[in-house]
Write a structure and sequence with these properties.
Distance between the termini: 65 Å
Radius of gyration: 31 Å
Strand content: 35-45%
CATH topology of the largest domain: Immunoglobulin-like
CATH superfamily of the largest domain: Immunoglobulins
Oligomer: single chain
Number of domains: 4
């Protein structure tokens, strides 16, 4: 009953061995059998890789492509159902893959599926796909073949990729590139109310295993959902694949009864590319950097990015950074920036860079000092490391203290603490250059005498206690509220 399809692996390995030319389309096809209340149908998803299609100019800034598609469902020599049509891309600024989905109602039986594509703008460029198609949905438990998705979102509108209140973009090549962080799949379950009559619930278990070769697999992750028996049930599941290394994997979906016996199972294979996950930093070559986002960064962009990284580095890395900043070698600067952000997000270092720069610019604008970037001040560094505080009090009307601020973080994941506070003050009264005086966050500056330091200039002798050397607190006085703010705010 399992629907067969051409595997992505033969396509990918062929692509690695034989460089793409305009003489051969590269298409991916996936299919699954579903059912309406009346009859079964087969859903065929098609993708034609953008790099294999000839796009032609529509005008000076837009291109378009088209392929002729022929889908045949055959039983022996007889064509049971077919469709021949031209699949046009939208008018685009840049080439993009062509996607399509077709659904054919067919009775139960065994068939052969054939899909042929030909580039309209280059008739010598074709691709052909065949697979055995098994359609057998009876009045018994049935689990459809999982359909891998590139993305999905809630959407009740009509459209070829819309189903059961969701827009679901298929992934016919079964290939997740380095930008992907989630694997999503869709499947349907029929007639569990008949097969599992009398059971209150059943379980759908799903798991990802890494293919090690020679039939050896390693379990990577798994999950499950409890379901109530029903005529029809649908599942839309996503799993985290951000830390999956490059390689071949399988996704298995099982239906288990109340006794945990496996009643139905479906397995498909997919490939994951995650080249920067465990990259050897010595293997970052000039050729690799030339293809990354850092190549387009100008000298001023690189200087800003490097200094925006500074607040988050260790002492040893900070020393290396200072040497890089002092150098005129742009390659060295690009290497440092790329290496830092590929550590932060191996799936999409450019996105990590853009997000960090957005925060850095906000910190610079808010905390800028006359002598340095805003993110290089104590408040700016704290903002960069821990984010915006949940609450803040700014005091300028305490007659015995210079201006000061208290930042409050109600939840502080960095140290698993609650109600973490930072106290900054401006003893020089110069601009906005507040410096950190005290914090109760583990690993940060902790100064038991902070209150005496804060009030040292105008009320230094009004300490609480008889011993000047041991006293840590100040006597209470009108408007002297720093201790109250810090402990009770």
């Amino acid at each position: 009953m399992q629907v067969m399809k051409q595997t992505i692996f033969s396509l990918l390995f062929a692509a690695l061995i034989v460089p793409h030319t305009m003489a051969a389309l590269d298409m991916g096809v996936s299919c699954a059998v579903y059912a309406t209340p009346d009859k079964p149908y087969v859903e065929i998803n098609l993708e034609v890789a953008a790099g294999s299609i000839r796009f032609v100019n529509v005008d000076s800034s837009h291109v378009q492509a088209a392929v002729e598609v022929l889908m045949l469902i055959k039983k022996g020599d007889q064509v049971v159902n077919y469709e021949k049509y031209v699949l046009n891309s939208p008018v685009l600024e840049f080439p993009r893959a062509l996607l399509d989905v077709k659904r054919f109602a067919i009775p139960n039986g065994d068939y052969e599926l054939e899909v042929t594509c030909q580039d309209i703008n280059d008739t010598t460029s074709t691709d052909h796909f065949t697979a055995q198609l098994s359609v057998h949905i009876e009045q018994a438990l049935y689990l459809s073949r999982p359909q891998l998705l590139r993305t999905f979102r809630a959407d009740n509108s009509d459209g070829p990729f819309n189903k059961n209140g969701y827009y679901m973009e298929p992934l016919p090549f079964n290939f997740y590139d380095r930008f992907a962080t989630r694997l999503a799949f869709y499947t349907e379950i029929y007639h569990s109310d008949i097969t599992l009559a009398g059971q209150e619930a059943y379980t759908v278990r799903y798991q990802i295993e890494q293919e090690k070769g020679n039939g050896i697999k390693t379990l990577i992750s798994s999950g499950s959902k409890r379901k109530t028996p029903a005529p029809v049930d649908v599942m839309l599941v996503q799993m985290d694949i951000s830390t999956l290394e490059s390689g071949n994997y399988s996704l298995t979906v099982e239906i288990r009864d109340a006794a945990n016996a496996v009643l139905q199972t479906r397995t498909l294979t997919f490939q994951r590319s995650n080249p920067f996950l465990q990259i050897d930093e010595n293997a970052i070559t000039e050729e690799m950097l030339a293809k990354q986002f850092v190549q387009s960064l100008q000298p001023e962009d690189l200087r800003f990015a490097l200094r925006a990284i500074g607040p988050l580095l260790t002492n040893e890395e900070s020393a290396t950074l200072q040497n890089v900043l002092a150098s005129d070698d742009l390659k060295q600067k690009r290497y440092f920036v790329f290496r830092y952000f590929v550590r932060q997000d191996p799936n999409n270092p450019e996105q990590a860079y853009l997000k960090h720069m957005e925060i850095a610019r906000a910190a610079d604008a808010k905390f800028r000092s006359g002598f340095r970037f805003g993110f290089e001040t104590d408040r700016g560094r704290t903002y960069m490391r821990f984010g915006r505080p949940d609450d803040l009090i700014h005091v300028e009307d305490d007659p015995a203290a210079p201006p000061y601020e208290i930042w409050v973080y109600y939840n502080f994941p960095k140290t698993n603490q609650r109600n973490v506070k930072f106290l900054f003050y401006n003893p020089s009264l110069a601009g906005e250059d507040f410096i950190i005086l005290h914090s109760n966050a583990r690993g940060e500056i902790n100064n038991p005498r902070w209150e005496r330091v804060l009030y040292a200039r105008n009320a230094g002798e009004e300490y609480d206690g008889d011993n000047y050397g041991d006293a840590t607190r100040m006597k209470t006085n009108v408007a002297r509220n720093a201790r109250t703010y810090f402990e009770d705010f």
